[in-house]
Amino acid sequence: MIGRLCGTLVEQGVDGICVIDVGGVGYDVAIPLGALGRMGGLNETITVHVHTHVREDSLSLYGFATQSDRAAFRALLGVSSVGPKVALAIMGSFDAPGLATVVAHGDVAALKAISGVGKKTAERLILDLGDKLPKITPASAGNTPSSASLSGAGAAGAAIGALANMGYRPAEAERAVQSLGEAAKEMSVEEILRSALVALSQ
Fold first, then answer.
1. Which residues 6+ apart lie within 8 Å of 67 measured at CB?
2. What SS3 state is found at 125?
3. Which of 43, 44, 51, 135 is the most buried (most CB within 10 A)?
4. 176 burial via Cβ count (<10 Å: 0-12, 13-18, 19+)
């Protein structure tokens, strides 16, 4: 199994699929959108902590900025009805401390704002993850938006939080999301995040 990759980021897709060149071999790695900015840019050397997901017909790699994020992803996979796609979407909105904060506060609304997570799944996540994130310390108010703010802002708030985790200033992230206007109300966290990243790159 592959546990870690250190190489050059040579391709970066808007869907989070990246190609990391390690000694001339390119590895396709799915990385949460919220983590890409923390790892580095194109043609830079990055290190990703990898979860290797094996199925009968495929082998997929999922990469994370920290071991804690990878541990949180694995904990998510242990929840009934949560597969890699939904788990990756959740990790795209929250890093490990942020997820621990949401779970600790029982914030169903913050989880429901993520595409693919309904009320029942959100409730199950909070119930099942309560004792599975013991080594992840909930984020302090100064690092990650509070669960209350995420609940009030829905998908837009979750996207702003993800942008802040990527290293963007809160005010800068908020302006990028607000620039999407009324259309943002009909978009998922992932759609808002992609559009906001495009706006920030211009």
1. 49
2. helix
3. 51
4. buried
Q: How far apart are CA 78 and CA 71, in angstroms?
A: 11
Tens of pLDDT, residues 161-193 = 777 766 677 778 888 888 888 888 788 777 888
Closest CA to 151 of 183, 202, 177, 114: 114
Q: What domains can be seen in the chain, in order of their start residue?
A: 4-64 (2.40.50.140)
Contact assessment for residue 65 and residue 57, using Cβ atoms and an 8 Å cutoff: no
CA pair distance 202, 181, nearest whole angstrom: 17
What would the pLDDT profile of 56-90 be if each residue is shown by its tens digit?
888 999 999 899 999 999 999 999 889 999 999 89
Residues 64 and 31: beta-carbon distance below 8 Å: yes
Q: Which two tokens stand for residue 118?
A: 């309904």
Print the SS3 string covering 3-21.
Answer: CEEEEEEEEECCCCEEEEE
